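New to this. Please check this record:
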Amino acid sequence: MAVLTVEDLLERLDRRELLLIAREGREAGVVRPTYPLSHYDAATLRRLLRRYADRLGRLPAVQSLLERYSRRIRPDAAPTQAPLAPPISVLMERLFPEVYGMEAEKEALIEWVYLPLALPKQALYYGVHPAPAVLIEGAPGSGKSFLARRFAQSAGFSYRIIHTPALASKWYGETERRLRALVHKALRQTPALLIFEEVDALFPDRERNLEWLNSVTLQFLLLIDELKTKGGVGILGITNRAHRLDSALLRSERFDKRLYISQPDREERYILLTQMAKGLPVAAEIDWEAWAEATAGFSRADLTKLLRQAGYHAFLRHYREGKAQLITEEDLRRALHSMES
């Protein structure tokens, strides 16, 4: 089989991939464009890069693209070893400690994010990106951040949780620099996971946002494209206002999947209440089935607050009476009443 050369590779690439190589080459001092790269179309980018073809081969982006385009699907090219990841049921217990309910959502994170990062060779063989990007959305209090944080802490990858608004800077270009630094550091620590909390705050729709944020959103789009080319870094974006995100972020090859976290149904509320109550001094006669019914419409955060408020009433009784107390049905009723009032 003929070896794919850099010149052959350049002929196969679109403008996005050519621009990625040109930017990386410029940063490495390999490519010296005459004009700003945004002024080049695909044909002129290709002509520019051909001048430096003999030096482009050492760039990570070019090496990754050469490997991808040189690959031939043959029966004997399949990974010979079986995947080393445990069964899904085992991963569910290991990756989501103290995350009760949300079974479908947990399984989706395993299949969409964990497995491609943990088994990159097998993923590449089947054309699956080893750089997954998933948008997690849902109402406030639905458990989005809690789910993502527990996953990141237990997956065994290097990870960073970013409160996205904190990246913003009043200095021109500083926000973009911080974004690049985050991504490039993650690329040196693969497999890695980047979690962007409140992702809509910094990357809103460019047609309706503040002018200075347009370049920040564009920088984020380019960085996602870079990750898709190099692999090894997953992104989780968390928001309760997905409709405010720039539409380019939501197309395929950017945030590939969207995971919606719904409010818990009756069965999940029962599981949540009984599991959270295990570590509390609750009275044995509490009818958790009835409380699962009575809390229709409650979010996971609401259920946590209900138990915490009921425990507070028992705590005050302990203080007044000078002896240990149990959390009772009456404590729960008082807590519910205070939440509804």
User: Anything to note?
Assistant: Confidence is low (pLDDT under 50) at residues 72-76. The longest strand covers residues 233-239.
